[in-house]
Amino acid sequence: MAATESVFIGKGEQPVGLALKYANRHGLVSGATGTGKTVTLQILAEGFSDAGVPVFVADVKSDLAGMAVAGTEKDFLEERATTVGLSPYDYRGFPVTFWDLHGEQGHPIRATVSEMGPLLLSRLLDLNDTQEGILTLAFRVADDEKMLLLDLKDLRALLVNVAERRKELSAEYGNVSAASVGAIQRKLLALEEQGADKFFGEPALELADFLRTDEDGKGIINILAADKLMMTPKLYGTFLLWLLSELFEELPEIGDPDKPIFAFFFDEAHLLFDDCPKALLEKIEQVVRLIRSKGVGVYFVTQNPMDVPDSVSSQLGNRVQHALRAFTPKEKRVIKAAAETFRPNPKFKSEDVITQLGIGEALVSTLLKKGVPSVVEQTLIRPPCSQMGPITKKRRKELMSASSMEAKYRKRLDRHSAYEILHERAEKAAAEAERLEQAEEQEKLRAAKAKKSKSSTGKRRSSRRQSTSEAVFKQAARTATSQIVRSLMRSILGTFKK
Predict the structure, then answer these.
(1) pLDDT at 257 over 80
(2) pTM of the complete model
(3) Beta bridge partners of 443
(4) In the chain, what's the furthest Cα-to-Cα distance?
(5) I want to staple 67 with a disulfide (CB 3.0 to 4.6 A). Which of 18, 106, 361, 386 is the partner?
(6) Backbone dihedral region of 297: left (phi > 0), alpha (psi from -120 to 50 degrees) or beta?
């Protein structure tokens, strides 16, 4: 197969390559620690980039950052290149963009809470069924009331609002437990302590920025700094699953292209499937099964091939199996199962060879014409053209500064969203409550004043009536006295006249 039609992997009895036509049928790279998985991932990423296919890889050990610079000439690399027939073998770097959820070793990657959704967020928070139901309810409330959920403070504010309105919301959406809301809040706090608050917010990642090529037509290799992220494995696994889901949701159907439009490497794949709920596993199966028609090839990288469930593993057509060790009965069963996934080669027994492979060797089977798997080959993996191992902090910073992604994503935005809306509602409700309280106080004051005024008026009227009576009595007394005096005087005068 021509070099423009495949990614050269190495050589067995004959050259072994990964056909670009079938590279979107996904793949698996597995093997014990120290057997060469990282170099295999590196040479696959280089091959895709040369073919104009953008790539995403998670750099768990900071080794893959070296793809940004040319490799250094070394005898063992030259010898391997000659052995596998890699000619010309040139040392060169590849177009790389660095990303980091924490924004330290790469451009910040952010997603909104709404984009993450309740299902993935529930897994990230390790919620039980009841708590997941309440989180789903909260998302529904936000949607019905036209509130954006952008960052964790939006979600916290919404949960407080849901708890305060639980009687009202229970009638419309179902029972809301204040205790469950409190448990979700505590888990959100723990998630923030792990640095996840830096991931949620805006500007959110635009997937088009992962699907770029450089001016020479080479695919950009997007490298996620994951050494620190691996300390929070649930965040790592959930983020990669979210990214894969976003690709599935946003990319159009294109059928089977001549080459993928994107290659996605999921390193430490066991972190995705460990304790994976059934609903989430079904979603992963659906995405892996259908995303190939959107031109995306997904490659799981893990130590144990059994880390990938059978329902997903059956979708992985291209396989690179490095050495496995067999010290226990369980490990022997794993080796037997891994050997059975290959199309047998009559010249050797895969089960025996897996334990005998050296560093940089692998059993390789890829899809050929019409998607038929090739006979498994014991393969020497070709050497990379770029540097194996990390780069200096200075060089990383220079590359980040030169990228247009730095200006686009570095500064955090804080739009008007659920937190601000609920804060405004609370202020408005508080102001209305204060107004009503003041009105009530004024009404009480008016009532008290009116009562006092009425009482005073009654006393004054009573006082005036008493004075009039006294005056009449006094007047009557004076009249009677005058009449008596006049009568006496008449009597006296009359007597005198006689």
Answers:
(1) yes
(2) 0.85
(3) none
(4) 182
(5) 386
(6) beta
